[in-house]
Design goal:
85% of the residues lie in helices and 3% in strands. The chain has a domain at 2-96. It has a two-stranded antiparallel ribbon with strand order 1-2. It is mainly α and 151 residues long.
């Protein structure tokens, strides 16, 4: 919808430009074929030229003003796109970091699980060797001369 509006504005500006050019050419031809003296004809041509220059300046000012408006709108849109792109890039960066961390975690988790299993097995073996290292036969109590027993 906005595109159609801009196209209509551009079309109107183009039509206005063609109208002014056509009017200028028609006025110049009318002056050249008018039954006037050379002095009057040169004065009329100078007047038409001055008026054409003034109209050209007005049209240039109008076009410059619209160009400024279009520049501002385009700059704002570009800024919005830039901000959106930055936000999306940040989100993608965070997702990539998260994916990399998740990819790295299985390896580090496996290493940690291996270390834990090693330590658990080592503790079991240490406890087992301590238990197995004890004599399973009854230990005789030593007696001293007083009749008391010591362990």
């Amino acid at each position: 919808m906005k595109y159609e509006y801009e196209r209509e504005e551009a079309s109107a500006a183009t039509k206005l430009t063609y109208l002014l050019i056509g009017g200028g050419i028609g006025a110049a031809l009318a002056l050249l074929f008018a039954p006037k003296s050379g002095h009057e004809l040169r004065g009329d041509i100078a007047d038409v030229t001055r008026k054409g220059i003034e109209k050209g300046k007005e049209t240039a000012a109008l076009v410059g003003e619209r160009a400024g408006d279009y520049y501002e709108v385009t700059r704002e849109k570009a800024n919005e796109f830039y901000q959106t792109a930055q936000e999306k890039a940040g989100e993608i960066s965070e997702k990539a970091k998260s994916a990399a961390a998740q990819t790295a975690n299985p390896f580090s988790s496996a290493i940690e699980a291996g270390k834990k299993a090693y330590h658990e097995e080592k503790q079991k073996n240490e406890v087992k060797s301590i238990v197995e290292g004890r004599p399973s036969y009854p230990v005789e109590e030593k007696s001293d001369k007083s009749g008391d027993s010591e362990i």
